[in-house]
Specification:
Layout: H1 13-17, E1 25-29, H2 32-41, E2 46-50, E3 54-59, E4 62-68, H3 78-81, E5 92-96, H4 100-110, E6 113-120, E7 126-131, E8 137-142
Parallel strand pairs: 1-4, 5-8
Antiparallel strand pairs: 2-3, 3-4, 6-7, 7-8
Length: 144
Amino acid sequence: MVKKRTGTPWKPAGEYSKELGGLTVNLLVRDMGKATAFARAVLQATVVYEDPDFAALEACGAKWCLHADHTYSNHPLSGSLAETEIRGTGAELRVLGLDPDAAEARARAAGYHVLAGSLDKPHGMRECYILDPDGYLWVPSVTP
């Protein structure tokens, strides 16, 4: 594993892992700064910690992690990372409780790709579909 961080991390990885529960999402990103900028601007996420290798984020009661591609040099996915422009195809990262109309407006204002604008769906939710800089599909959703 290649690390670009200098100095001591915010807390030991094992300590942070104990704080997580349920379904935990780790996303691999090309550029940590671009990924956290999207999370802040569009998802209104709190970036709890960020360095060039790793970031811990929280929004709407959910916690997730970002890992820079270079940290996965010995990971089974490392060979396929360079081959794809859009990541996570087929997965929707839903942020329940995040106003889709407001998220869509923030995404458009910041120049992010809105795949589908906010609509009321037959399953009872209002949602929109936004691609982040790595191509992950985020779906801010509320129950009207």
